[in-house]
Input
Amino acid sequence: MKRQIPLIIVIGLGFLFAAHTFIPHKISNDFYEWWQTWSKAISPFAVMLGVMSLFMVHTTKISRRVPNWQYSAITLIALVFTSFSGFMWGTQEGTPFMWLFKNVQMPMGATMFSLLAFHIASAAYKAFRARSAEATVLLIAATIVMLGQVPLGAQISKWIPEASKWILNVPNLAAKRAIALGVGLGMTATSLKILLGIERTYLGGGD
Amino acid sequence: MGPDYHKTGLYLLLMVFSFLLLPISLYPAVDDAQFIVENLQVNDIPYDDGSGLVISWKPLSKEKRIIEYRIYRGITPDSLFFIGRIDVNVKTGVPGEKMYFYDTDFNYFMDVQSFARIRHEKQQPPGSPLYRRYPRDARITGPQLAHYDILGVIDEKDFYYRNRKFEVVTEEDTTVYAGLKVRNFEQLAKKLIPDHEYYYTVLAVNEARKYFPHCEPAMGIPRENSPEPTKEFYAVFVEDINRLQFEWSLPTFTDDHYYHRVYMIEKGDLEKFRDYVAERKLLEENTLAVKIDTTLAVLAPVQENPATLIFQRYSAYPYTPAKTCYIDIQDGRITREKPYPNVFTGEDTAVDVAIDTANIGDYYFVFSLYDAARYETFSEPGQVDVISSSALPVVPQFSVVDGENDKGDYNTIRWGKPVVFLTNSNYLNESKTRLLVNYEANTNKNYKIRNIYFHVYDDDNNLIARINEFYLDSKITLKIPPDTQSLHFEMTFRCNNELGDDYVLKQSLSYDDISKSLSPGNITLGDENLKEYEYYIYKLNYFDEEFRLSKKLQGTQRELDDNIRYENYHFKLVKNYDADKQLYLVTPSFSVRIDDEHEDMIGSNLYPEEVEKSRIEYQKEIDKYQASLDTLVTEDEIRNAESAIEYYTKRIEEMESHPILQQAASYQNAHQRIKFLDKSRHIAKNSFAYKIVKSDGKGHFTETPVYSIEDNKPEDGSPYLISYNNFGTIHFFPRSDWFKTTMLPALIASFVFGVLVFFLIKKAKQGHDLFIRSIAGMQEIDNAIGRATEMGKPILFVPGLSGISDVATLAGLAILGRVAKKAAEYDTKILVPIRDYIVLPIAQEIVKEAHYEAGRPDTYDRNSVFFITTEQFAFVAGVNGIMIREKTATNFYMGMFWAEALLMTETGSSTGAIQISGTDAVTQIPFFITTCDYTLIGEELYAASAYLAREPLQLGTLKAVDYFKLLILIFVISGTILSTVHLTFLINAFPEK
Amino acid sequence: MKKNFFDLMQSLDRRWIYLMVALAIVMPLIIPFNSKTYVTEPTENVYKKIDSFSGRKDRAILMCFSHDASTMAELFPMEVAILRHCFEKKVQVLTICFMPQAKPLMDYAINTAKEDYNVQSGVDYLSFGYKPWSLFLPILLGMGDDIGKAVETDDQGRKVENLPIMKEISNYNEMNLVIDFAASAAVYSWIIYARARFGANVAAGITAVMAADNYPYLQSGQLVGMLSGLKGAAEYEKLVDVFATHRDEYGNPDPREFSKEVIKSTWIKLSDIENRKYKTARIGMNAQTVAHVMIIIFIILGNIGYFVSRKKKKAS
Output
């Protein structure tokens, strides 16, 4: 029973929402909107779960004094202080919360993102070796696209940006569409498996 | 020597704390007096209905680091409530000398989110008059109702079913109200009342959110003003059909306009008329002056308006922004059966005036706006432009149909034949011999465009290109001779309906020196320049007195999807309250539709017994007026009494005989009665009649009759649409559709797919061996887990960064189930960091179940599946930290990833872990391939679960996907081939969007 | 065996690469040099579309900010350039965001661009402010009917429908262009709902990494245009300089008609532009150029090394 009831709910609602895609009627729309309000109500509870998990993991680490437990302490203090400042003084411009956002969150986010540049460079260095014919094609294509992306490419030859565009629009796009097609089908199949109760791992465990 | 973690940790903690102290320590103490806003002024807004004030003050200099100004209003200077704020950029401050805040119209007053009790503003000294927003508490906010017009916006369900009948007993009589709690109102909106005093103050808040003292409150009184003069007014006389046509523009503020009027002035009276207008201006100024200083003498009007009223149209709420009208002259006279009423003065103006059409130039015409405060503003008098009807535009045939594939909120209006026009051109080469021309095509469903033929001629009329556009991609390319200065396009169509041979559109491209390219000129059809005209779509429902403008569309448009909103609200004035029960009171009566003459509203009441009561009231009124008739002397009084009797008699008649009210009265069940009335109300509100005006904006227009279809009588033959299924003969009610026809291909495809799945599952169950090609990454899973076991290090599994509604996450979780089971069997720790908190409990459950299945429930650690953060890059930082500290031996990335993918996998590869990834994010696949040992590309991610499970149900589905893909490929290839040979039926069979 | 240069290159520690990348990026930012910007079609199309709304009260564009601070470097210059274009050419701008993190960025972009213009909130531009993500679809769809009803209030709590800017703007028919700025495929929702349902024009401002995702929509015409990464921003900056803010010989505003020829024949020197905020992207492009060239050099060196060592292996 523990399995059956959720499965019935999933299958029933799944087919209802699938039907909603085909039915523009007001009744169908109203039902969808009604459900949306409920789904919104779920997420605050889920946030609680997330925060609880965070607390449990880190308090365990601190209490057991596992190596690097200090980081856990910092995580918890930051969590408590940020939420406290938000609850206490609001999230408007000029509040401590906003100050934290602007001076801690924003620069740290940007830093992590900018690391991409370094990683791409090193990944490119490792990947682009003319080991085989295919690899050589990849190497040349990459060079052209990289040059095409910057003004220098156009300065060298006006064909470089054109070629870069062609690479992106023709072979690249063809491959992408093929993958996208497969992905779309894969998604449909997975959804169908869930609808029909074939795939049940999301309910916990295998089969 | 390794780092001393205790010390490092301490330093880090200190650093965090010093950060937190920074914002507080940054701001030195300041002298509050310098931060008080100066020069606060409250002024009346011109041309309005006496509900608007503008508050202005001098902003503080930017050195003062102000981020916000807060505005407070009250009816006395000693209690002022927060009404709004203006945010300011700290760095730049406010340029200019003045800042403005407009307190106009109905705007936010209170709603369910307001505080329950009254609250003082933050950081105020004791005794401060400043409060935060008006509270919900009726004891505080209730008395305010008398000083504002308060409009309650009430959801219909709340109005019908959550009201409480409430009687207010006074000495004279008892009034019944519907009482509602604040939570039953969507919002309460306020509007200032003319000639009332309102007090305002402003305070500044700096970037540390310090509230500085407020300035001395200033008082303002909103005044009623005359409407803003009309800027443009065009009068046209169409000679051969004896028709006067007028067109005008309307000012911005139109809420209190009551009548649109047109007057005629004989040439000789022009000076007199100007004097009259000047006197009206003086009178208005005098009225205002008297209000301010009551000792002043009231001026009496002396002059009569020398102009003759020839047209009047009701234009009050719901505002009717019609901008055209016409009058037919018959036998040299302008006449009208019914006189034009004026509800404010009670006067009726009969229209019967001679006009000498032979000397039409001797007349001047004037347009006026007459508002609810009885002010009238005239446009500049103008003479007619005499034309013949051949100079008027021709409105193509139009039709109104129910909007397709909608939830019943669209009517579609279609007119005319398809249009194509050139929008832009670019040279494709240096020598300027290849040209890319962009075009746009507009059409409606009556004419589906199959092909567009472009014939391009040069200046000498030589054909230089003939293009058959069979697939409309908004662009054509053509070869042109060098140094072409202009090109002439002739465009024809092939449609599903015959267009006629003479339907040719012409447009030229000519070289423009400024833009150094060929730019498109006018688009012509015959003699008509399509861009010269606009279409005005007018509509009228069973609630409006007059047609109103629905949309103005360019001459190149051919279709309008007219949106008809599902209005679920009732708008009620709130004038009364009950402090004990915390109720705000509104009238329980509501309108159902307008009567057949489009003059008066037919209404009903929430409480059936009240309907009967009002009938008795009406009868009493009639008797009262009847009795008074004998004693009245003046003509005006008698006329008033007579019209009152007429009015009440009509009301009673309607109550007794109107089919809707009759049927409503027949219901015993109150719920059913309201339901029926609401349905009738909806139908009345949402059924629209349409007409089109095609105009050049200067009075040269043609108006169509109202569109009607005779053979579309309501099913039950009744004159009233009382069924949702009717579409009407003149008034069209949009229907809710049950099937989206554009989704038919998708439905068929789903069905075919479903059949394939069933068939192949059956086959798989029968023991047929279904071949599945091996997936490298999946075969390696066992080895990868084994490696972690050998090394005694944990496994890391990231099930993507997106939420549970993403199918990729579900696929990732399915793989997690299998991996966790293997890991549990090998007794290897698995770490699952989660970004989406809804995924968290599901992932925990999956891992737990996997341990149980492996027979190792003891090794399950709930903390091994944990939430990090929803912040994308912070999550990456967390995961990277785990990889480095825990030295995970095997990393799995299965699910949806964005820009963070490479950040994780690069770190993973630098720690020397074996990495297996799978994603359907096409852009991230290259990164995964270069940095991971094995990558599941796109659909392999979805197939993985089936691959690992190896059971018939899963394999059957997987195989079905393969066959379906084959089907798609067949369609793609045949579509390509067919459309290459100009056969577009196949690609057209699929919906474009 | 003696290790030569190429062998070293083969086994180069990744930290050296990181250092070189850092230098290649930082140096051009510190010392800007004049470089040429070539304008591509998708950027041009966005520009042309926006420009066609100039001076019109019955047209507006909607800018949807769907990114956080982490991708600001690429997207922020675009936003400023577009806002500058709008303020210069009197195009009515509406802005909205559905992420709390985007709200300050949205304000920052508006404030940065409006500093040099006499524009007023509610009249020339309007920020709808932050709306919860759960309202994304309802608002997106609701704006097809009536913007005032869908978003209700602006970021100052004023009723949207009462504001002067909204006088002639009621739905996508008037707010005919939506530009979504994102580091993800967020623009997809606008395409399938706003475009497919209501015929709104949709354009995207997107980080270069994610740009490839949007090419299919661009090719099929579902996106009217796209600014991809810093390059797109630089191109837009140039277009604004060449056309919108163009001055005649007496220094009076003289916006030019759009034309490819003019773009080709105009070269704007970065050193002539005083205000750094209007050339951020172009300076950034300098850095990007140097970095790309450096990576290409690395790849070439790596490959030479690879061939040399393979030859050696074969020889031995």
Summary: Chain B touches chain C through 40 residues (CB under 8 Å).
